[in-house]
Amino acid sequence: MIALLSDTHPKMEALQIEIIRSMPACKKLALVDGLIETVKTLARGNIRERHPVATPQEIHRMLAERLLGAELAQKVYDRAR
Known about the structure:
Layout: H1 10-22, H2 25-50, H3 56-68, H4 70-80
Helix pairs in contact: 2-3, 3-4
């Protein structure tokens, strides 16, 4: 097997893959959901740093633009009004 992670020992990587493969789908989805929430949290923090006076609603909109793209976010937000 080819190593996927350069900073992980191949035996440990193989063990991680084995553990993930043996997990039920609901556990895998929970892990992915947690990672998505972490990415959103980091993105919100970055938006706050770049726009320190932005309201929570503006931050939410800017996050939507990052996640969906400006065009789709505009369509979604324009329909919500």
